[in-house]
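Class, discuss our next protein.
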Amino acid sequence: MTGAFQPGANNYAVAVGTNPENVSVPHIDIRAPAASDYLYPLGKRWLDVGVGEYVLLSNSVVNGVYTANWSLLGTTGGGALNTLTGGSGGAIAPVANNITLAGTGSQITTTGTAGTITFSIPAAFIAPGSIASTTTLASGTSLAVGTSATVGTTLGVTGATTLAGLTQVGTASINASGAGVTTIGTGGTGAVNIGNATGNTAVTGTLTSSGNIITTAGNLEATGVASGLLLTPTVVAAGASPQTANGRVVAVTFSGVSIAAGATQTFVITNSAVTGAGTVILYSLYGATAGAALTIVSVTNSAGSSSIVVTNGTGATTSIVNITFTGLVLN
């Protein structure tokens, strides 16, 4: 409906008589029109001095309350907003007097309130492609990577790091400086493989193992004048048989040994490293007197014990001296 409006004066025109000037002459004011300014004909202009111009599009009444619908035509800063332009798609015109600023699920959301549309990232953000950061990419809790992660320069980790599986290509330096301790493979039950198919594995310093060091397709080599296989034996002072020496490498001395020419004598070493009859031990002896010809005839092993039978050659001098056996348990 049009509602009631101020009549205004008439304008005189040649040959057509008079006409109301209420539409052709704008209302001039120092404020913008309000919904309560309904006493004007449709098409009436309203000039908010120094700010903008409005036009009355319609009047309505609900429960006896009149409401005017004024539309802004332009402002001192420019004309009315007709389109919005994004990064692609060109200028977007309104549809049914509305332009929707829509978000994308799991990427960005929009929320409208009075006079404001807020853009935000949802709590669970899913990027449609790569995410690149020119500075630091920080994670408040944990950073989960579904497939693989590529680090261009240096990966710095503060605190303990647990890796379920790690494949490293290129030069790797672990604990390259500082006094930290590098521990590999002590907490698990699987095999720890170190080395490669064509190159060498170098250890600078002491390599300490609380378990076995096993080579399945190569040798354990020590090269150089100052290099070698250093085995520290369990040393037992001279005494009568049996002697106790627990260890995989032992040096046991038996005192007052007297073996006549052509005779034999048995020496018993109690050793927890001997697991049974199948244990293989490499023995050597020294300390025989001049003219004696001592030879190890046999070695009989049982759980925790090793018996060594020694004979003196026929016609040899009787050996009465301390004899030392060095033994290496091979299995």
Observations:
- The CA atoms of residues 279 and 331 lie 6 Å apart.
- The chain is about 0% helix and 35% strand.
- Confidence is low (pLDDT under 50) at residues 1-5.
- The first strand starts at residue 10 and ends at 13.
